[in-house]
Amino acid sequence: MSYETDIKETVDPPRYSLTFPIYQSSAFKLPEGNRYRYGRENNPTVEELGRIISLMEGAESTTCFSSGMGAISTSLLTLLKPGSKLVMPLDLFARSRSIATGFLREWGVKVKTCGTGTENVLKSLEDGSLVFLEAISNPSLRVYDIERISKAVHEKGGTLIVDSTFATPVNLKPLDYGADISLHSLSKFIGGHNDIIGGSVSGRDDLISRIDAFRRTLGTNMDPNTAFLAIRGIKTLGLRIDKGNKNALFLAQKLSEMNVFDEIIYPGLPEHPDHRIASRILKGFGAVLSFRVKKGSGSYDELLKKLKHIEAANTLGSVNTVISHPMTMSHRSLGKDELREIGVDENFFRLSLGIENPETIIEDVLNMAN
Questions:
Q1: What is the rounded CA–CA span in Å between residue 21 and residue 238?
Q2: Can you give the CATH number for the domain in which 270 is found?
Q3: What confidence score (pLDDT) does residue 15 get?
Q4: What angle in degrees, to the nearest 10, is found between the helix axes of 44-57 and 224-234?
Q5: Whole-prediction pTM
Q6: Do 268 and 325 reside in the same domain of the chain?
Q7: Does 263 share its domain with 128?
């Protein structure tokens, strides 16, 4: 996956620099620097990151943000207004749900949450709805049939936004399957090193230009240092995702054979409810798997203390393998009923595979079963 083919140079230096420089400037001389003008509006380093992501996504345009939630909130606030219809499945990152069921609903948006899986989304569609979903959902790992959903959404005059953070452009390009916008938390796999917070949205020029204009108003812009590090991360994205795909599939298959946990959840396993969809639209099944320990194994903090190599953290997508307990971490803001609806309880864990030796990882995970 190279982005070095047929690329028109963006700004005038860096013709002789092997890495695109950080333009650490809050403003630019006028009239020569009118294209950038003020750092909140545009920056050459951030623009370069957007250009690269557009090439990876097959998009006309990309704009970048200070966080994944900045990308989500700015996009939703741009495309929705009081009286608009928003459809989203239950299995989403908790903050994505909370902005919809909290602020947007109070603002007058007609928010409809539906059950997990493609069929439930299709049943919930109404004329003119904006549909927001995750290509591979967090943390229950449902895989949505973007091709079918996008066709149905467009027949009803709606718009489809796909958060493809878990898949990455290596495994999936949502725009190829009809999505209007592909969105990423760059803090995860694209950054890849647990050292940045950022987000991006990609799609048609007409949509992205509207979102970008509102980004400038909201001030959810990305800083050039973050853009520089995200560009660095992209250089090894293909290698890291390929290794993560292999590690996750290896681990899922081995743990399933061993039968040491109550449940192994991974789209690459034949028993996964969306395995056929995943096999059709994904180039790799992803670097994240979830599992449920047997009841009575111990409290979540006792189990995490058994790990010697894997770190527990409220994140994913790095070169190192990380484990999380969604009920007390990423989805801690949800109530018990909401957690139950997406299959999350105190025995549920999410594992993001890095690039380590898979034997080391499985040996460590098995400590939780003993």
A1: 23
A2: 3.90.1150.10
A3: 64
A4: 30
A5: 0.93
A6: yes
A7: no
